[in-house]
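hey m, so remember when u said the tokens were messed up on ur end? i reran from scratch. heres the input so u can diff it against urs
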Amino acid sequence: MEIVFKNYKYKDNNLSFTIKEDEINGIVTDNIEEIVDIIKLKLKYTGKIIINGETIKDPIKYKNKINIVPDEIDDNIHFQTVYSLLENELLKRKISPKNLEKKVEDSLKIVGLNEELLDRNIYTLSSYEKKFVQLAMALLSNPDLLILIEPFKILDKNNEKKLMMLLEKINENYHKSILIVDSNINYIYKYTNHLILFLNNKILKEGSTFDILTNVDYLKKNKIDIPDIVEITYLALKNKKVKIDYHKDIRDIIKDIYKHV
């Protein structure tokens, strides 16, 4: 699913931006709740919303094609089993599969979890398992767009990478659009290809994540955080005159240093 917002009226500003189908999209924002409501088509609007090349008049039929993976699992469900959680999600969305048990098991398989988890209570799961159960739950309704809110903040480095590999697989193999919404610019720089800067209720910039977030002068001018790995390279270039390229992985910077220093 590709969604194009054209001159979307929001708090006296006209927002124009695109959620791309074939890339991992990222939004850096100081207002997560509002931008998610806009993309989830919850708010009344003027302007145009174009989905898969078609200007839509009634967004209601598309709302169920967009699903959210929140930053944390709801405390109110901690005493449910994983199976009952997924079953309730299907009931809530009025989805009636021919074989409910298989549908639930398949959702876990897609995210790489063992069906043995189904009988466990939510509160017994690790942070990693909870996050992947959330993703399985979001996939039950077969959405075209997955919005993940601050998905990495409770994960260690190893599981952070596992989650990102899974999202890339979902994007490529199942043709789901992926949008990561985060206030932490380091995650956005590392894991996304297409970037939207939504700050102070405006779209400041949109384009290649790498191109925007390695433009340090622009980031400084607009008081936007600089990714840590970009700042290291920038300071090496500026102060030490070391000729190294910008990279997303610190190991690539080390290789550059060995090569040029």
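this time it looks ok to me. DSSP finds eleven helices and ten strands in the chain. if urs says something different then somethings off w ur setup not the seq
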